[in-house]
């Protein structure tokens, strides 16, 4: 319930009142109070909006009186009266929530005009201006206030009538339409309103005002506003304020105009004002694109006096807000007015450059700079980009799963991508799939970019894309993918194999044809900025998830301080190894199995040696084999089909049938809860003995060559301390044997993953056996919720839409559930091992709000895919400073 003042004059507000006055209202008040030329007005608070909805869409009692009092103040200041035909005050009625939602809600300009006033005004002012303002007003108020009840009074319908008029007159530009034609247009508009609604267009200015105010409140819940809030994670309950402001007129002649500007370049960050404007126009014309605006640099030539005022205002605003501002302004008869300012949205490279420049200019501190940049924006600093001024045609949109830009010909299978792309014929290809599975990896790696119809931000395609820095648009439900083409559902447009398409992964855009792509430059600013982040991050570590020397080197370049998760099974999948792995699995006795294992040992030792070398003495957490063994075997369904096909023609293949028998034997109903993780180490101890040997022999080789290696051997999926005890005893025996054989000392340790809820709950027992914990939050989330991550797409989307969950728990840690298990585990572990090393290696380790959570609960480090390392470094610095960008 609103208990305080519901209507605030601009001069009574300030920028700290964003919750109450909305961003636009708070900033209008602030600008007025620092002496900038803001037309006077008042703000009706966001609480009135909440009240309006709480009381079944009624304006609260007494509000009208408060509005009238505020209005009287504005009238007095300007010497004009609302509704007075001889000297009318005209108003704009503008939405404005706490968080900017550009263009999502409604605005009405020129409010207060009616037939009588228009008649009187046209005697004393330029009639063209008067009727231009009236036609805009009739259109806007009808659209905003009545189009949700009646079908044909949207802006679009009125624009259509205006368009027909221009065609009749044989002109193309609005400005070529003379006063009497605009007057006739106003009459047609009013007639149209009567025809469509059965009611006259309201002539009473107070009735108009109330209609506009309630329409703005209603626009809080229009479809596009709701969708926007969902996307930006803005709370639906906060409501919008309404700003009622005296009009200033940019459409009053050739010495009038309106425009939009950024105080610095929002794409590059360059310290040059960037903007566009139109002479003899009102605000809508610039954004709606009815006329092509001019670059702001023209204004300097056209009207140096006004330009100087504009420039000075930009300087005052930056100094005051200490950030790049996005502003809206209007010029009336050579006088400059500012109508809006807010922190300007910017690209990653621009965000970094502006922050660094502003520190150097003495405008902000390094802490401010670090707190201000959204960590997620940093990926944009690392990938190829579409140059800032490029024009392109977006044909569909999906999720921005892997950032960066890519151009290539569309191909529809991984084999084709591998054949034509990187490592094959060397052409540029974009892999287009309905969805992707692990077998698509080779195709993805050969492609410039990946486009999928299904799958979310944590889908396989997205994970791989982020891990490898592949520009990817996932979950693009606007297309339908066939075997050699895809269709844009809305338009029926078909894109066939071999046609060029482009992706803008950072924005989720699918583009027809080729776009120019340039390598992102690792600018000096970026390096300097990250060094500041590291200063504030202090001892809190950032490691990477990497399985190859190449990835390791990349991650170190991006600032990784070690490996937090080295998955060994990826090493088993590669070409020549898979048959050996299969022989090991198929072995019917220990001796045969050992032969295969000895072969694998050779491979793995080299793998680890390469990784330890790349790490240069940094620590490496190696996870022992984790996935169910059938993942290494031929596909069961496919085998069944092949065997059946042979039988059908009276043939048979004994080898295939034997294989099928084994695969049948290994088949599990719930493989993710089956024979995997440490359970494998218990059933097949030789596998992990081999792995331990490979790790320590690889490490010894590095040490012998004068290097350093710090292996941390990690046992996955432990739920009971006895599992860990069993495995550890065997592994330590192996480790001791290797050390004795090699005769060098390697600084190794044993620890475990905490990814089974029981493991977290009994962490005090487990910590006795483990010198470190790494939270495997992918599995922990899966098992805590009982959600299968790979199948969760179908219910998580509706869950989030219905607000059953605030977001996808596989993206951002579920702090109250999964996070509580983590806290319990930490607390319990500390009772028996106060110095236990704690980290996280789930995908969450590179997600800013999860990084903050990990910092706050006392982990020692996070680990994430290489391209997310800078994000985690910045998120950790923000956590250490206790301030970041997201306060939604
Ligand atoms: P949005 O939030 O969609 O940008 P605004 O409330 O900023 O909506 O209004 C849109 C445009 O209307 C502004 O850019 C400005 O040009 C114009 N406008 C708003 N208020 C006034 C005013 N008092 N005088 C003149 N033009 C205005
Ligand atoms: Mg605006
Ligand atoms: Mg796991």
Task: Tell me briefly what this model is.
The chain is of the alpha/beta class. The protein contains 34 helices and 31 strands. It binds adenosine-5'-diphosphate and magnesium ion (2 copies).
What would you say this structure looks like, in words?
By secondary structure, the protein is an alpha/beta fold. The protein is 45% helix and 16% strand. The strands form six sheets. An eight-stranded mixed sheet has the order 13-23-22-15-16-17-18-14. Strands 24-25-26-27-28-29-30-31 form an eight-stranded parallel β-barrel, surrounded by six helices. It has a five-stranded antiparallel sheet with strand order 1-2-7-5-6. Helix 22 (590-615) runs parallel beside helix 26 (685-704) and helix 26 (685-704) packs across helix 27. The model has no long low-confidence stretch (mean pLDDT 92). The structure holds adenosine-5'-diphosphate and magnesium ion (2 copies). One magnesium ion binds at residues 328, 340.
List the helices and strands and how they pair.
Layout lengths: L6 E3 L8 H16 L7 E4 L1 H9 L8 H16 L2 E2 L5 E2 L1 E7 L9 E5 L3 H10 L2 H20 L8 H15 L9 H19 L7 H15 L3 H10 L7 E7 L10 E6 L11 E6 L3 H6 L5 E2 H7 L1 H18 L3 E8 L2 E9 L4 H13 L5 H7 L21 E4 L1 E4 L2 E7 L2 H7 L8 E5 L7 H6 L2 E4 L7 H9 L3 E3 L4 E3 L3 E4 L5 E3 L3 E5 L4 E4 L11 H14 L3 E5 L3 H9 L5 E5 L2 H4 L3 H10 L3 H26 L3 E5 L12 H13 L5 H13 L11 H6 L1 H20 L5 E6 L5 H22 L6 E6 L2 H5 L1 H4 L5 E4 L1 H9 L7 H9 L16 H15 L4 E4 L7 H9 L4 E4 L4 H13 L7
Parallel strand pairs: 3-4, 15-16, 16-17, 17-18, 24-25, 24-31, 25-26, 26-27, 27-28, 28-29, 29-30, 30-31
Antiparallel strand pairs: 1-2, 2-7, 5-6, 5-7, 8-9, 8-11, 9-10, 11-12, 13-23, 14-18, 15-22, 19-20, 20-21, 22-23
Helix pairs in contact: 4-5, 5-7, 5-8, 6-7, 11-12, 13-14, 13-18, 14-18, 18-34, 19-22, 21-22, 22-26, 23-24, 26-27, 33-34
